[in-house]
# Entry
Amino acid sequence: MDATTAAARRLDIAQHFANVPDPRHRSYRDHHLLGDILVIALSGVLAGARSWEGIVEFGHSKEAWLRSRGLQLPNGIPSHDTFSRIFADLDPVAFQASFTSWINGVCEAIGVRYIPIDGQTLRGTRGPNGTCLHLVSAWAAQERLTLAQVAVEDKSNEITAIPKVLALLDLHGALVSIDAMGCQKGIAAQIRAGGGDYVLAVKDNQPTLAADVEACFVQAYEDDFAGVKHDTYTTQETGHGRREQRVYTVIYQPRGLSTQAEWVDLKAIVQVIRTRQVGDKETVEVSYYISSKEAAAQVLAEGIRAHWGIENGQHWSLDVLFGQDRCRARHKNAAENLAWLRKVALGVFRHDDTKGSVPTKQLRAALDDDYRAHLIHLLCEKSA
# Structure
């Protein structure tokens, strides 16, 4: 790499967070530069740091490398209290926006098709009143990448966060899936107004709709689907000592839904019969959905299954690989901003084509300066 290229790369990292507002008083901004702090935090999380103390330890051990990347570090590595205070006051929306170009670049290359929206409770943030921070995230299923997140104080407030998450997204052409809590008329209307389609789980929080959808399928089965436009799709999986079959049945332009006019562009209802066999034990679950997309059963099935995948694709990985559930940061915006860094790191690992699992890449990022620089430049190149 020649000197010009090296200088350009140093500037790329320094400028990555240039538009994030510094929450500190002007008098304190020169002691530790905000860009330096954010790059240290990102690099530390990529290297497996799980706390402010871990990030500081990473910074001290890799100070020479950080300076070689263009960080000024006028007073060395900030303390863990400095990291905690700044991330607590940092604007989460502006911080997320600093990664927008990278996220858009990845999504444009692949094409966002399914967007599950789901919440996750950060149990380590439990406060004196017993409540925990709850993050509602939008997940690009095919890209395995978090698009946006909004925090609420408790899971019971998840419904208020979903419209805020939707407002951050470009929904055109996407199929948005949400569990039963998000099965609300206003949310369905917002998705359609944004150019997307919805597939929403229907349960007892919408009792009239749930009863009508179930009755519609009962009648269709009794009539052997005579005169009913419908489609089916079946999947079977075997592994880990269990066998699972899912049968998706879709009825288009359903009749007999007393509240159908209240749901914008409701064009299909879906029944999923999930049969699981483990040894001699067999269980059967039946679930229902409504959708604005008059698509083949396979397409709607993939959207529904993509929503189930967020549990392993994101929640499990963040808890097990990044220790999210055990992190005690909870002051103001600190937990939300640190959670976003973890999600960015997870996305970077998954879109790095280097061989190895995420844990292997974390270890490599901790030990190998060149590999860590490569990961950070993946962000910078997409943001250029």
User: Anything to note?
Assistant: Residues 297-322 form the longest helix (26 residues). Residues 1-11 have pLDDT under 50 and may be disordered. DSSP finds 14 helices and nine strands in the chain. The first strand starts at residue 114 and ends at 122.
